[in-house]
Specification:
heterodimer, A: alpha+beta, Uridine Diphospho-n-acetylenolpyruvylglucosamine Reductase, domain 2, Uridine Diphospho-n-acetylenolpyruvylglucosamine Reductase, domain 3, Enolase-like, domain 1, 3 domains, 12 helices, globular, B: alpha+beta, Aldehyde Oxidoreductase, domain 3, Aldehyde Oxidoreductase, domain 4, seven-stranded mixed beta sheet, six-stranded mixed beta sheet, 29 strands, binds flavin-adenine dinucleotide, FAD (chain A), oxidoreductase (chain A), flavoprotein (chain A), Diverse_Substr_Oxidored (chain A), FAD binding (chain A)
Chain lengths: 305, 797
């Protein structure tokens, strides 16, 4: 389990990095945290002739909350680690879903090295952050020597471990929009061992109105299909009391999820069990998200009086 | 008296070295060695048609490519059947490199030697092997059906068939007032040490000697095997086990193909050669264990006493039988645990499949036997509506029946006789520890909160310390260092600590003065190996006996110097002194000096020991006829038969009513391994064993598809439990000394793992109210078990 020989490049700027990528063509790979790429090299599932290490590229390690008029968003640079995002207090305050999901991404030691952007462009169908990006309608910025483009979550991921990136493109930043209104979020998942990729994972975003009734509910799933699945759950739960609903009212959202999703079997779980889990976890996450929405609505009302 | 250390929970002396990265494992040796890698079969069953190396020849750094054709003499013959047995009528072993047929994915076909491992792997990728496919036999059922054969000259795929019977068990079952019948299944798992195998060899052409480092559990036997294969005098072969990062059984098998091929290539090339197994190789080419199907019939009376027990099981031995049929023999004999059925019949068939070979993994057949017996006990209790501990107690062998002869033949070929144990006392302690009698109250409270909990229990007896022997060497150096050597190996158990404790106490010196070497044929030539929970029993007693010899000589020499009767002497803190006479002392270092009359004085110490300085009788030789120079001794310990440890575990689990996730809330162990040499080490062994048991019960399995591909051959998909999955373990001890050996000890190495699948199956069954007959159990499987049981019986509780 030793990789075959490769040339190693360590650019210092984004321009240099994209120039290097353009120079090596199809034979190059970006090396970020290496948590997914290095095992693939060792197992010889990938054998690029060139590795372009972006860990020392200037200005890529930032995590910022930006409000550019069109609404606030969390911007994560390509060299920022999962840990940086997870432990950023400002991010946790405006967009708690990131921390809620990141706590389920692998183990702390892997989060210390693995990058959030690397995870997005790796596009594992079990990756929490792709589902978060999809749920929030976020996007990723891609740079090459010929220019820059912004692709949204559904454009980015074209299949399991497949993206729209060209070999000469570097993902420089991800943008996670902060949802408007009284919202609450929750992430819940079942994995075989703590920190493993989920057997089924779900993130839910609930918006409540001023009467604290559910206005809308959306969910995104991992390990339930080849790409992150986003479902609108509003129909069965619209108008219910977000803080005091009965479990069976949330179960309706779960039933919708079970009916809509078409997961596969694998060695850890059958499709039927996954479908069942999606129902249970959707109801649990929706309820938790709604309760948080109520609490946040209370906070904002409190602050404005 | 020097403070005694035996029985004290002193910290492991090896840990500072290992924890600060000072360990020296196989891959730390021989940085400049050539690297070996192997082309392994990608098919489960195929004939080799052609090996084409053309594309590989121009890779820079390639040194050699070998196939079976290149292997001379004995190197090219099949590997040995290490433990033949009369019932093993069709033993088969592989060639070091496959000759014309491959029988499992991962079997080595071509050996490549190159300047580095990466280069060797580049070469492997370019070698084309052409195969003709044969039908693969995967799983016990398809082996039993025998529609296809693994070895075309082995009818029915049966390597061995054995029946043992005490009394007329079938008649007893038929005549019994109640009968339960169970079909049970245990899936495969594996030792999975974090350090895989590895071999480094260096040939000294001038000295005509070979040094082999190998990550093994049996260095002396590897030496004998390598010498035999390479037709070298054993005297010219040294084998050393460096630090070994876990073994758990897989490294007792020898010689592995690589243990023959790497030294052979080193001699042939006249260069150092090293092979370090990678994780995928370990999964597909080392060894697995556990897989069995079992059918149990038990007849019992109204009190739950077993009148007849009739067990048939089918054991998956994989593609070959290099280690004989130890695993099913152990299952068949240790199944009985602490119980005494009126009559017992056991029959097993050991079956070939086109999968990785099965050899002992910690527990070595006992977890399967315990599963069969304990599932039966629970089924009897359920049938009669009795408390599960009560049924067990009624079937226990009682303390006054010890030693207890089962009338069966054990794995060592000796009668199965339990030497000691107090099973009722062990059970009483466990009931108290886990709160057995209060559990129903707890269950009710949990149920009121919508939670589902269950409790399970499992009992086992473990034959430990099998012979034939181990030896110990003890020497007091003139600087006061006490050097100890024993031939068996260490793979993390803490032998540097525990053997030092034993010797320190015998010699009256501090543990810190004692240095222990294991598994190095340069230091001790005769040994068997580290397996079957035997190190403390065998080498522990051997080093104790050797130390007693040294002590005896020290007292004699000191007696002459002090002009005292040796019987009046004692050794305290490294000084020999006359009991009750302050000041009449002589340091052990001086005794060591005196015990070796020298010719040359090269320092102050030795000046006092030259033959001219020594007083003594001028008419006697400086070394008496029946004496030898130096303060040292060698002795061997060889027991009449195994000593039997026992234990009982209980677990409380919670199952999520919706997601079917299973969590262990409490895990309690009561354990009796005789005299405790070091409770901390024993508890460490129990922790490790329980952790592996939890893996086997809830997480690990070897997933073969129908084509014989191991689809989860990585730590990503083979779910070894993390620390997060292993519960806190509560332990209580009983100490029923073994009457068979001087220290009164029994083995403890494997105990922790044995009953875990049985215990967790029982606890899940208790939580769910659904009978559990196969392990491991994942949440997905529990979910489907619930669905099936709802469909069959309507909603439960
Ligand atoms: C044991 C383990 C458990 C894990 N569990 C989870 C889990 O539960 N959930 C989860 O989501 N992830 C999990 N991961 C994956 C982890 O999150 C990875 O860190 C992440 O998927 C990839 O990030 P990285 O920075 O390590 O990327 P790398 O490994 O460096 O790269 C991954 C891929 O993305 C490409 N790439 C990386 N950055 C860029 C860029 N800026 N532009 C263009 N291409 C780029 C690389 O070329 C490569 O193809 C786990 C990993 C391990 C080892």
């Amino acid at each position: 389990m030793k990789p075959s020989a490769f040339a190693y490049h360590r650019p210092g700027t984004v321009d240099e990095a994209v120039a290097t990528l353009a120079g090596v063509g199809d034979d190059g790979k970006v090396l970020a945290g290496g948590q997914s790429l290095v095992p693939m090299l060792n197992m010889r599932l990938a054998a690029p002739a060139h590795l372009v290490d972006v860990n020392r590229v200037d200005g890529l390690d930032e995590v910022r909350v930006v409000d550019d008029g069109a609404g606030a968003s969390v911007r994560v640079g390509a060299a920022a680690r999962h840990t940086d995002v997870e432990h950023d207090a400002e991010v946790a305050a405006v967009l708690p879903l990131l921390r809620q999901a990141l706590e389920h991404v692998a183990h702390p030691t892997i989060r210390n090295r693995g990058t959030t952007v690397g995870s997005l462009v790796h596009a594992d169908p079990a990756a929490e952050l792709n589902a978060v990006l999809a749920l929030l309608g976020g996007s990723v910025t891609l740079r090459s020597t010929t220019g820059s483009r912004v692709v949204n979550a559904s454009e980015l991921v074209t299949g399991p471990m497949q993206t729209c990136l060209r070999p000469d493109e570097l993902a420089t930043e991800a943008a996670f929009p902060v949802p408007q209104g009284h919202t609450g979020t929750a992430w819940t998942e079942v994995s075989r061992r703590a920190g493993d990729y989920a057997v089924c994972g779900v993130g839910v975003l609930v918006t409540v109105d001023d009467e604290l009734r559910v206005r809308s509910a959306r969910a995104a799933y991992v390990s339930m299909g080849p790409v992150p699945e986003v479902l609108d759950l509003t129909e069965p739960v619209a108008g219910i009391a977000a803080g005091g609903a009965r479990p069976d009212e949330w179960a309706a959202a779960g039933r919708l999820a079970t009916a809509r999703l078409e997961p596969d079997d694998d060695i850890h779980a059958t499709a039927a069990y996954r479908g069942h889990l999606a129902g249970v976890l959707t109801a649990r996450a929706a309820r938790a998200a709604a309760e948080r929405a109520v609490a946040r609505a209370g906070d904002t009302t409190g602050a404005s009086t | 008296m020097t403070t005694r250390t035996v029985g004290e929970p002193i910290a492991r002396r090896e840990d500072p070295r290992l924890l600060t990265g000072q360990g020296r494992y196989l891959d730390d040796i021989g940085h400049d060695a050539l690297a070996a890698a192997f082309v392994r079969s990608p098919h489960a069953h195929a004939r080799i048609v052609d090996v084409d190396v053309t594309d590989a020849l121009d890779v820079d750094g390639l040194v050699a490519i070998y196939t079976h054709e290149d292997l001379p003499g004995r190197v090219g013959e099949p590997l040995p059947v290490l433990i033949p047995h009369a019932a093993l009528t069709e033993p088969r072993t592989p060639y070091a490199l496959a000759r014309d047929e491959v029988n499992h994915v991962g079997e080595a076909v071509v050996m490549v030697v190159a300047t580095g491992r990466d280069v060797a792997e580049d070469v492997c990728e370019r070698i084309r092997v052409e195969y003709d496919f044969l039908p693969p036999v995967v799983g016990i059922e398809s082996s039993r059906d025998a529609a296809a054969l693994v070895h075309d000259d082995v009818p029915g795929n049966v390597s061995a068939h054995l029946v043992q019977e005490v009394g007329d068990a079938r008649a007893a079952v038929d005549a019994a007032p109640h009968v339960v019948e169970l079909d049970l299944e245990i899936e495969r798992s594996a030792s999975t040490p974090l350090e895989g195998k590895g071999v480094h060899a260096r040939w000294d052409a001038d000295d005509r000697s070979l040094r082999v480092y190998t990550s093994t559990q049996a260095s002396t036997s590897v030496r004998a095997a390598v010498a035999a294969k390479l037709e070298l005098p054993p005297d010219r072969v040294e084998v050393i086990a460096p630090d070994v990062g876990g073994g758990f059984g897989v490294k007792i098998v020898h010689p592995w193909p690589e243990e023959v091929l790497v030294p052979w290539a080193a001699i042939r090339l006249g260069r150092e050669v090293k092979w370090t197994e990678d994780r995928r190789e370990h999964f597909v080419s080392a060894a697995h264990e556990r897989g069995q199907l079992q059918h149990v019939r038990a007849g019992f009376d109204d009190d739950g006493r077993v009148l007849g027990l009739d067990v048939t099981f089918w054991h998956d031995n994989g593609a070959y039988t290099p280690y004989g049929i130890i695993v099913p023999i152990v299952t068949s004999t240790q199944l009985l645990g602490p119980y005494k059925p009126g009559a017992y019949r056991v029959e097993f068939s050991s079956l070939y499949t086109n999968t990785v070979t099965v050899t002992p993994y910690r527990g070595a057949g006992r977890p399967q036997g315990c599963f069969a017996m304990e599932r039966t006990m629970d089924a009897i209790a359920a049938e009669l509506g009795l408390d599960r501990t009560v049924v067990r107690e009624r079937n226990f062998i009682q303390p006054d029946e010890m030693p207890y002869d089962h009338g069966l033949t054990f794995q060592d070929g000796r009668p199965l006789i339990y030497d000691s144990g107090d099973f009722p006392a062990t059970l009483a302690k466990l009931r108290k520890l886990v709160g057995w009698d209060e559990f129903e109250t707890y269950r009710d409270q949990a149920r009121a909160q919508g939670r589902r909990v269950g409790i399970g229990i499992g009992c086992y007896v473990e034959g430990t310390g099998v012979g034939p022997y181990e030896g110990g060497f003890v020497k007091v150096e003139t600087d006061g260092t006490v050097v100890v050597a024993t031939g068996l190996t260490t793979q993390g158990q803490g032998h540097q600590t525990v053997f030092a404790q034993v010797v320190a106490d015998e010699l009256g010196v501090g543990v810190d003065r004692v240095a222990v070497t294991t598994g190095d044929t340069r230091r001790f030539g005769y040994a068997v190996g580290t397996f079957a929970s035997r190190a403390a029993v065998m080498s522990g007693n051997a080093v104790a006996l050797a130390a007693r010899r040294v002590r005896e000589k020290a007292l004699r020499v000191a007696g002459e110097a002090l002009e005292a009767d040796p019987r009046d002497l004692e050794i305290v803190d490294g000084e020999v002194r006359v009991k009750g006479t302050p000041g009449a002392t002589i340091p052990l270092t001086t005794v060591a000096v005196l015990s070796n009359p020298l010719r040359y004085a090269f320092d102050a110490e030795t000046e006092r020991a030259t033959q001219f300085a020594s007083p003594g009788d001028p008419d006697q030789p400086p070394v008496a006829d029946d004496d030898e120079p130096g303060l040292q001794g060698t002795d061997y310990y060889s027991p009449p038969r195994s000593t039997f440890a026992n234990g009982m575990h209980a677990a409380i689990v919670e199952t999520d009513p919706e997601t079917a996730e299973i969590s262990i809330l409490r895990y309690c162990v009561v354990h009796d391994c005789g005299t405790l040499l070091n409770p901390r080490l024993v508890e460490g062994q129990i922790h490790g064993g329980v952790a592996q048991g939890v893996g086997g019960a809830l997480y690990e399995r070897m997933v073969y598809d129908d084509a014989g591909q191991l689809v989860n051959a990585s730590f990503m998909d083979f779910l070894m439990p993390y620390a997060t999955e292993v519960p806190a373990i509560e332990i209580d001890h009983l100490q029923t000394p073994s009457p068979l050996n001087p220290l009164g000890v029994k083995g403890a190495g494997e105990a922790g793992v044995i009953p875990v699948s049985a215990v967790l199956a029982a606890a899940i069954e208790d939580a769910e109210g659904i009978r559990v007959t196969r392990m491991p159990m994942s949440p997905s499987e529990l979910h489907h078990l619930r669905e099936r049981s709802t469909n069959e019986e309507g909603p439960r509780r």
